[in-house]
Amino acid sequence: MIKAFLKFGTLALMCISESEATAQTTSYFPSAGLTLHILGTVQDGGSPHIGCKKSCCSHLFNRPELHRNVVSLGITDSLNSRKYIFECTPDFPMQAKTLQQRSTFAGAEMPDGIFLTHAHIGHYAGLMFLGREAINSKKVPVYAMPRMKEFLETNGPWSQLVALNNIDIKSLTANEKMVISPSMSVTPLQVPHRDEFSETVGFIIEGPTRKALFIPDIDKWEKWDKNIAALVSTVDYAFVDATFYDGQEINNRNIAEIPHPFVIESMDRWIDLPAKEKQKIYFIHFNHTNPLLNPESDAAQTVRKNGFNIASSEHRFRL
Q1: Domain boundaries, given as residue ranges, for the chain
Q2: b (16+ CB within 10 A) / e for 97-117
Q3: What is the pTM of this model?
Q4: C-alpha to C-alpha distance for 136 and 129, rounded to whole angstroms
Q5: Which helix (H) or strand (E) holds 310?
Q6: pLDDT of 87-104, one tens digit each?
Q7: Cα separations in angstroms, 6 against 18, 248, 298
Q8: Which CATH number does 34-318 carry?
Q9: 114: Cβ–Cβ under 8 A, 6 or more apart, which residues?
Q10: Distance CA 304, CA 244 (A)
């Protein structure tokens, strides 16, 4: 059970000053440096979810404007006129267009790099849009771990993207920082997950002044050889796996086949952290059944009362 509720306070959705590392959700500030944009928050299957007849999805199928994008982050780097996307989701065309529109500099719609966490459909299937059936891109850099790289190179249709130079795969190494530009570096962190076709990683994304942690998928925190609370203390923002709020919402499947840290488990684990540490944590990667998709739900109010945040596609953060 959750040990205690904090007194409900103002959400960290205010304008950013030089001393504040919080999200801004009103008009977009000029990206004088690096800006991290939330481009999607939903688990691989999307929302509305195929085959779902529950109330969480039934009303969405006839409301295309309520479509929710699969989890992805975007980075705009105005200092070097570059932009990057973390995860290549089935919603990639919309997310690439959105990131271009949010950039304050001219440039092509294709990002200057795509970072992949693993080979589950919501995280790499958008690469299909880079092929000749769609945009027929030219050597878009795709950053991947060794097994992920081999998977793309040796399995169709992804291998055709390599053969036709639609993508240029760049190798990542766990725990090794890669300098991407004069303003940005990325460090992959390998995490335990269902690794049928590739390993799974999260990322530390470092800008000139701030760092972000991105772990959209992990089995359980206790299975990892790293202390997640200690890691959060080293960054300014932490976007972490919140696939399921609790076990009750997915009672039609064997939860052992799709393990994730329940949000209620994560809150119990971190409830005694100082308030400023908890304010760094943004839950993300929501299953279509997750009540946190409704900001007015009792579950969402509980998360906020406990001092944590819920990621939204309106959020952006200075790095």
Answers
A1: 34-318
A2: ebbbebbeeeeeebbbbbbbb
A3: 0.86
A4: 8
A5: strand 309-310
A6: 999 999 999 999 999 998
A7: 27, 25, 15
A8: 3.60.15.10
A9: 84, 85, 86, 87, 88, 127, 140, 141, 142, 143, 167
A10: 16
